Amino acid sequence: MTTAREIMTPNVECVNVDESVSEAAEKMARLDVGSLPICGNDDKLKGMLTDRDIVVKVLAKGKDPKSCLAGELAQGEAVTIGADHDAREILRTMATHKVRRLPVIDGHRLVGIVALAEVARALPDATVGDLLDALTTD
Fold first, then answer.
1. Cα–Cα distance for residue pair 24/8, rounded to 1 Å
2. What does the pLDDT read at residue 78?
3. DSSP labels, the chain
4. Which residues pair with 82 in a beta bridge?
5. In sequence order, which residues have a C-beta less than 8 Å from that of residue 82 and are 6 or more positions away?
6. Angle CA(2)–CA(117)–CA(93) in degrees, nearest 5?
7. How far apart are CA 43 and CA 14, in angstroms?
8. pLDDT at residue 125, as a whole number
9. How far is CA 77 from CA 27, 60, 73, 123, in A?
10. Most buried one in 79, 109, 123, 134, CB count within 10 A?
11. Alpha carbon distances (Å) from 122 to 4, 58, 126
């Protein structure tokens, strides 16, 4: 079965916990992505920052994106997948946690991101349909 390592996007750029949300948004625009991993000064994954987080947790609450730090939006432990986990485990994790992107970890090191679209291309349509149902129902 296909593994996360085989379908992930490698060499993912992080936003540092000490970078402003404004800098993170600029980085997202430059890279044309909707999310970035939040990494600490110890190079460990602290969470994920999405464009939705910026809108809902910063802009809508009247916070200044230039003074709000990305690390302030890292909540709890990030949901991840091991680089050698298979596509079915990726689907299970995405469905359980209702996420569309998973950071891929090898040991304690971030090695990539696997997105729903990449999983969809790697698996049969029916399996992907089940995941979409899980992600879109409450």
1. 22
2. 85
3. --BHHHHSEESPPPEETTSBHHHHHHHHHHHT-SEEEEE-TTS-EEEEEEHHHIIIIIITTT--TTTSBGGGG--SSPP-EETT-BHHHHHHHHHHHT-SEEEEEETTEEEEEEEHHHHHHHS-HHHHHHHHHHHH--
4. 105
5. 4, 104, 105, 106
6. 65
7. 9
8. 59
9. 23, 24, 12, 28
10. 123
11. 10, 35, 12
Amino acid identity of residue 46, one-letter, is K
In the structure encoding, which two tokens stand for residue 55, read together?
A: 């809108």
Pair of tokens at residue 130: 């089940």
Residues paired with residue 38 on neighbouring β-strands, in sequence order: 15, 47
Confidence (pTM): 0.81
Per-residue pLDDT tens listing for the chain (138 residues): 789 999 999 989 999 999 999 999 999 999 999 999 999 888 788 999 999 999 999 999 999 999 999 999 987 778 999 999 988 899 889 989 988 899 999 988 899 999 888 887 777 655 555 655 665 665
